[in-house]
Amino acid sequence: MNFKKISLILCVLFISASMFTIHSESVMADTTTNVTFADISKNHEAYEEINYLVNLGVIQGYFVNGKRVFGPNESVTREQVAKMVVVASGNKPLVVNKSSFSDVTVGTEMSGYIERAIQLGFFSTNTQGKFLPKKAITRDEMSYVLTKAFKLDTSEYENLDSPFADVSITNPYVKYVNTIYYNGITNGSGKNYLPNNTVTRAHFSLFVARAKNEKYRLELPVKGTSVPDTKEVIGLVKVTTDGLNIRKTSDSASSTNIVGTVNKGGKLSVYAVEDKWLKVTYKGAFAYIYKQYAQFLDADGNEIGPVQKEVTSNGAINLYVKPTSSAKIIQTIKANEKLPVYKTAGGYHLTQVNGLPGYIVANNTTETGKEEQPDPTPPTTPPTASGDVLGRATVGNLNVRSEANATSTVLFKLNKGDSVKVNEIKGYWANIEYNGKTGYVHKSYLKLLNQNGKPLQNRIIILDPGHGGKDPGTVLGSYAEKNITLKVGTLVKQKLENAGAKVYMTRTGDTYPTLQDRVDFTNANYGEIFVSVHVNSATSTAAAGTETYYSISTGDMHQEDIDLGTFVNNQIVNNLNMKNRGVKQYPYYVVNNMAIPSILVELGFLTNDEDRQKMTNDENKFADAIYNGILQYYQKQ
User: Fold this and answer.
1) In terms of Cα–Cα distance, which of 7, 57, 12, 6 is closest to 31?
2) Strand pairing of 329-333 and 317-320?
3) Tell me: the pLDDT tens digits for 271-292?
4) Distance from C-alpha of 147 to C-alpha of 141, rounded to nearest angstrom
């Protein structure tokens, strides 16, 4: 009897052990090797990406008639998206006692993933207390989810029109669509993005794999080359009639050039006014519509409204696309021009010139019928200034105040190019003397020039080695942009400090300050110029050379950017025999958000053999070139 019991126990243990082993092997097969789906062949466009996600535990598929299938052509639902991005982003389900949504049951598998996705901000909104878990996600919603889940930086795409014909600049998802497009996650469908279409399970797997791992990303598009350059937009119009023809050319004599139509209320970005035609974009290419059937809107997409008053330009002033001096300049308005004012906000008047709306700096105008009070006893000739440090005004109409703050009384104003004696500097305020009068000026609008033969002494210079930490920048083999920029930046710092400058670096190790962190760091240290160092890359190994970027900033300050950028760019090109790609304007976040002279230098292309050899072997030469460029800038009086 005892023997039979023992035999029975041993038999049960053996069977149990066998079942555990089989189960363990099955799990391992699901998570560490390629899983075979009956409906995914090795030739399927998403085969590699699907298996990559299987190995991460992101997807498992399901069984139909004993066969494991994936359902590649089925629409992916909101609950499935929640689970996939929570797992792929390295997070776990959130256990809650009460559901946040009336249509999600606590305790179900999907509940925890939905709650976690909402907690992390992966979904933008819910509808009247519902999550709609079984509803297929749309492509515009998908752009938001991927951007948030994988922490893609949207800052470069805030003010860009979409490269797709069916996503307008006023679309609430436009910056997220731009972000996944320019990060190589999707390239849309031809010239369209199809924002309201649903997404198949196979396509969403492609997008998640690309967002998670750069290995799977598409060839990165270059802003402004694959489509008309959105930085050149001069306005926004609303169509006033149904069935307005959109033509490939500005010619109404034939119907062969009609490429589409747009109905009343449709909005289009305008690139030029050509007689009776407006040059717009349609399906990623330039096109034309009749001007008489379109109404210009303000920068926010609202109607312009009635005239409120009339002003006169005090001098030659710029007309901007948006109420900021970093926006595109549409044209320059001559002095003494009378201009209608429709709205005033943030120090800018909305006006129209030759039927084209734009924004002008309010302080550069005088209301018609009111005379501007002149400065007391203005000098007939620009006075000379002397002292250890001189300041040259880099903008016109510069306020000189009674105290070191932006709210004190304006004593008088400086013209662009006026030289002043700098008595003392505290923080961002300089106590200056001009034509026998003293006051305070924000030093961001003065180029500080030492007169002691040491141009760099005590000048406060901010160096910004691009990328860092979790953001390696462009990578090729063992070479990473973040390491090159840090080494070059550190060498530049040493050279500047040896010349007496006060130098601060946005990072001194392998850390990741955000773009806004870099701006804040500059302001906190009272920077006087800002130089950001980067490394370029391209899909073509033939792309090579050095290029330097600046952004149009307050008033006429951009001329200082151009000077600084030209000196640095030319030094690198000449001293390292680099191809000269020029000094260019582009609103990169760090240079676009500075009030001081700021440039972003692309040393060369990591993807080009010759450039790479120089950047990884001649770092000191690059540092010498940047140092000498900065020195030249300060030597220019």
Assistant:
1) 57
2) antiparallel
3) 888 888 988 877 666 788 988 8
4) 10
